Amino acid sequence: MGEIRHLSSTEFSKGRHLERIVAAARADAGFWLMVKEREMERQAIGAEVDREGDGEDAIDKSAPARLTPTITELADDLVSRMFGTCPPEVLVIIQQALLDAVRVELSAVR
Predict the structure, then answer these.
(1) Does 29 fall in a domain?
(2) CA within 20 to 30 Å of 74's CA: 6, 18, 87, 98, which one?
């Protein structure tokens, strides 16, 4: 198992690596369902925060406490299985790619 350490976050976000990771996540139905649940829960928290007028910071503060495993943990697990360890700045890009893919899928259903 290798490490993603040699790739910079800029190189990583431009390459096919993100597509490969998102495809692997989609191929694992249980994993993809958990990613979808995290995004749907985040949207529900956002709607709740909007009603209460607490702002975007409240989503970030309440989401980690309610979502387990977190999207960070899910992304880390997936990448670890595929490539080994990766730096935090790359993990953030992967999380965003997973959430973006889920948002597109969820918006197509509505």
Answers:
(1) yes
(2) 6
Answer whether 0.70 is exceeded by the pTM: yes
Number of Cβ within 10 Å of residue 95's Cβ equals 19
In a 10 Å sphere around its CB, with 0-12 CB exposed, 13-18 middle and 19+ buried, how is residue 37 labelled?
A: middle
Distance CA 38, CA 20 (A): 21
Looking at the structure of the chain, the number of domains it has is 1
Model pLDDT for residues 19-60, shown as the tens digit of each residue? 889 999 999 999 999 999 999 988 888 777 777 665 555 555
Q: How far apart are CA 77 and CA 9, in angstroms?
A: 18
82 CB burial (10 A radius; 0-12, 13-18, 19+): middle
Residue 55 maps to a domain: no
Domain span including residue 21:
14-49+68-109
Q: How far apart are CA 84 and CA 79, in angstroms?
A: 6
